[in-house]
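Methods — Computational structure assignment.
A single polypeptide chain was analysed. Its primary sequence is given first, followed by the predicted tertiary structure written as structure tokens.
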Amino acid sequence: MTEKQKKEKMALIVAELKKIYPDAHCSLDFDGEGWKLLVMGRLSAQCTDERVNIVCKDLFRKYPDARSLADAPLSDIEDTIKSCGLYKMKAKNIKDACIRLCDLYGGVVPDTMDALLTFEGVGRKIANLLLGDLYHKPAIVADTHCIRICARFGMYKEGVKDPLKTEQIMSKLVEKSEQSDFCHRVVYLGREYCTARNPKCDICPLAKICKGDKK
């Protein structure tokens, strides 16, 4: 497909996904508070959103704001988030990030990629999640669902596992105003139909569009 054809195909996919999943939202229950999404985004690495939501109910009950989490004993954070995996590194990243957030930004998550990437444990995926959900900026969150499914849509060759490459390609193919919600809807699609193994192509509502030219 040419880039023009890919853009046209993505426009159809975006429109159809809006019909299938009209209520697009982040799977992490952060209640609209930026510092919570910053913490939850870090915890979500190699962990399910469902587990992060469960763990953070206890974490945020103990530490109801970024300052209290910044001041919390590292061992207490570790114990609370242990079931999320990689808990020692994540606990240190979270504490350091909250210290930076409070000391340099008054507890308000910054709204630029460059600033977000200075936080411990924050890469482009988390930064794009924050930019899209907190500030409604164009942002492709290149998680495993996005990388896998956009390849199946024919936007690039299947087997590509480079998040940055996916972000760069898809940011040109999806309308800027649709990017954040598109990424959330792709997660829904990936869980319900377009699974990593044995995708349910026979019942997927996007099957006809998806089966287009994938060269």
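Note: The domain at 3-26+140-210 is CATH 1.10.1670.10 (Endonuclease Iii, domain 2).
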